[in-house]
Amino acid sequence: MKYVLLFVDTEQFANELQAMGPAERERAYERVNQWFADNAGRIRGGSKLQEADTATTVRLDGGEPVITDGPFVEGKEVVSGYVEIDVADLDEALRMVEAWPGCPVVEIRPLAPAGP
User: Fold this and answer.
1) How confident is the model at residue 23 (pLDDT cuts 50, 70, 90)?
2) Domain limits, the chain
3) CA torsion, points 66, 71, 77, 78, in degrees to nearest 10?
4) pTM listed for this prediction
5) Measured between alpha carbons, how far is 2 from 114 in angstroms, rounded to an integer?
6) Contact between residue 68 and residue 56 where contact means Cβ atoms under 8 Å apart
7) CA-CA distances (angstroms) from residue 102 to 30, 31, 35, 74?
8) What backbone phi and psi angles, to 5 degrees, belong to 69?
9) Alpha helices in the chain (DSSP H)
10) Which of 30, 49, 61, 110 has a CA positioned 20 to 30 A from the CA of residue 24?
11) Cα 58 from Cα 64, distance rounded (Å)
């Protein structure tokens, strides 16, 4: 079963990361890199996203499209990256996420089947 893990940063998490000293921040990144290494066999792709203020949002809810700078919602949580995984079932995806050492929120979403 294929899922996408959406990694969501919170304002508090960003502030805590910023407040870390260089050595502590490096250890945090090492834990994330180790998670990726430990799960490499199940990860099929993904990437870190640029900051939310680089987003462009297009609203298509009637009439002419409305284009705005910035993320699609105002809030204190922002999707910061994603990976596509291929696992046996949701339980396996949950076990992967339970070991995630990075940002405090991860959304697990199944991929839709290919086709019309």
Assistant:
1) very high
2) 2-110
3) 140
4) 0.84
5) 11
6) yes
7) 10, 8, 9, 22
8) -80, 145
9) 11-19, 22-38, 90-98
10) 49
11) 10
Residue linked to tokens 């640029």: 50
Total count of residues recorded for the chain = 116
Burial class (CB in 10 A: 0-12, 13-18, 19+), 96: buried
pLDDT in tens, 66-93: 888 766 656 678 889 999 999 999 999 9
Token pair for 44: 């099929």
pLDDT band at 107 (very low <50, low <70, confident <90, very high): very high
Mean of the per-residue pLDDT values of the chain: 90
DSSP 100: -
Contact 97, 4 (CB under 8 A): no
Domain 2-110 has CATH 3.30.70.1060: yes
pLDDT in tens, 36-63: 999 999 999 999 999 888 888 888 888 8
